[in-house]
Amino acid sequence: MTNTIVVTDRLTKRYGDRLAVSDVSLTVRRGEVYGFLGPNGAGKTTTLRMLLGLVRPTSGTATILGHAPGESGATARVGALVEGPGFYPYLSGRDNLRVMARYQRISDRAVEDALTRVDLSERGGDAFKSYSLGMKQRLGVASALLGEPDLLVLDEPTNGLDPGGMADMRKLVVDLAEQGQTVLLSSHLLAEVQEICDRVGVIAHGRLLAESTVAELRGASTLLVRAEPLELALAVSMRVAGDDAVQLTDTGVRLELPEDRAPELARALVEAGADIREIRTAERSLEDVFFEMTTDQEENR
Amino acid sequence: MSTATMTGRPAARSETRAVPTALGGLVSSTRAELLRLRKWPAVWVLATVWLLLNLTFAYIFNYVAYATGSSGFSNEGVAPESLLPELLPAAIPSVFTGGMPMFGGAIMFILGALAAGSGFGWGSWKTVLTQGPGRLSAFGGTLAAVGLAVVGVVAATLVLDVAASTLIAVFEGQSIAWPEFGALAEAVGGGLLIFGMWAAAGVLVGVLTRSPALAVGLGLVWSLVIENLLRGVGNLLSGVEYVTNVLPGTAAGSLAGALGAGGAGEPDGAPGVLTVLDAGPATLLVAVYLVVFSAAAALLMRHRDVV
Lengths: 301, 307
Ligand SMILES: Nc1ncnc2c1ncn2[C@@H]1O[C@H](COP(=O)(O)OP(=O)(O)O)[C@@H](O)[C@H]1O
Ligand SMILES: [Mg+2]
Known about the structure:
Distance between the termini of chain A: 41 Å
Largest sheet of chain A: 6 strands, mixed
Helix content of chain A: 25-40%
Pfam families (chain A): ABC_tran (PF00005)
Keywords (chain A): ATP-binding, Nucleotide-binding, Transport
Number of strands of chain A: 14
Number of helices of chain A: 11
Radius of gyration of chain B: 22 Å
Largest sheet of chain B: none
Number of domains of chain B: 1
Oligomer: heterodimer
Strand content of chain A: 25-35%
Strand order of the largest sheet of chain A: 6-7-8-4-9-10
InterPro entries (chain A): AAA+_ATPase, ABC_transporter-like_ATP-bd, ABC_transporter-like_CS, P-loop_NTPase
Distance between the termini of chain B: 32 Å
Radius of gyration of chain A: 23 Å
Largest interface: A-B, 64 and 54 residues
CATH topology of the largest domain in chain A: Rossmann fold
Number of domains of chain A: 2
CATH architecture of the largest domain in chain A: 3-Layer(aba) Sandwich
Order of helices and strands of chain B: HHHHHHHHHHH
CATH class of the largest domain in chain A: Alpha Beta
Domain ABC transporter (chain A): 6-230
Number of helices of chain B: 11
Structural class of chain B: mainly alpha
Bound molecules: adenosine-5'-diphosphate, magnesium ion
Order of helices and strands of chain A: EEEEHEHEHHHEHEHEEHEHEEHEH
GO molecular function (chain A): ATP binding; ATP hydrolysis activity
Shape of chain B: globular
């Protein structure tokens, strides 16, 4: 059994003149939650469609669980919710899953399990067309979970959910990850995935800009100090952290210093006679990183 | 918000999907499609409309005409007494396919177009094609399920015709003579071919347009209007005739005509029933159309992007 579940090599999709996805090479490893991040129109859905064999790449290749996209060996082991849930509106949620269970050749009991897992058992008998957007989305996840796939592909699964529903969805993904489920999760909401993803790939304008762990992408954590007088605080900070690791910002003095050296900094400030208003760790959010990255790319275009 | 939250915990005995073979995938896809077609009200509405049409035009109108001594539907000038033999069980083989080339065919076209075309707008094709069976197996399941639905409709038509004609025979005090088995089998086979061809045409146009509404519109315009217009032109211009003689509607109509659906002495009586082609070529042509429509739809499904 291999440890890479998905490998793509310069995957490209062109629609007429528009390059929807361009030379995307990414890797998803077994057991991880991989966040596929990018703004709307970045090419996330198109990439996922190519991985699922729904759309043929213009060039480049993809391998899923050792198979080409769309081969039974791949699709049978992948559960997917891509670009919104697609079901028969006249059937109940339960019957929709039963149809998919027939396709997968698994029993109706698995359907009940899947409905329970997304908290839809009670409304399972209602027609799909009567569902709220959130319920439709949950049914889509239930269908993706059906048959215990090796890889779960969720394309913006929190779309259309209220804040409570979003929290539930995140919890579901965390629970699945704890059980060792490999998840490929796309989102344009960076803040919401940074806590649940092991690794992320950042895509914008069809290009993969970066692929790494969330921590790596964010870089080292920094400490933010507000103390008076400012000149003194700046001088002490430079002594503790080194001249290059200190920056004066609108909010105060920013130090590239790990969190465990905060007490040392506080002592030094107090001994020097500065009045400390605040010392806190200030991690760059993925949002910041992402913003920098995409604006860099804009400039290079 | 819901009180319980999503847990993601699998039940103790969770089931894993297996990698299907091409044939295994076809069988499971057929079962899946049968389930969702069976639970689709539109399918029952279409089947019911056809059965009512068939009952009305094959039996009720003509029986009322006979009973009241007036001229029957599309039988103007025919003596009422000569209508009765057509309404008895022995005549089932000749009347069985009478409404099929045109009205029944249009309804089967709609069935096929809805079954194959709706999934694009709903996004259900996208879901189906990620379940495990390959594209050909999954689409083959839809073709097979539509085919079985057609078999069901033809069987129901037979049951209805037998019931109606037996009832009329009993009512009119006629002795019940059953049709010859060979002739009946030919009529049922002809009905299956005609309905199968139109349903396959519906599936193909549904896949081509990816829109059931557009497909149904195009199909109805084609089978009810364009073919008739072309045949009208074909009667005037000899060159066009070669084309109109091999159109799907001509083939289906000729097959029904060869089975005697037009009624004795008036072969072109029922709408859509023709005598352009002989039984052999008509049967062959309908069968070829059925296969070509299905294969073309399957190839399209296999090669096109599904978004
Ligand atoms: N079927 C299609 N035909 C033409 N252009 C498309 C098609 N699908 C996607 N695109 C274009 O490709 C780009 C990427 O789209 P998409 O993959 O849906 O982005 P995302 O999922 O990241 O929002 C967009 O510019 C979109 O307009
Ligand atoms: Mg998208």
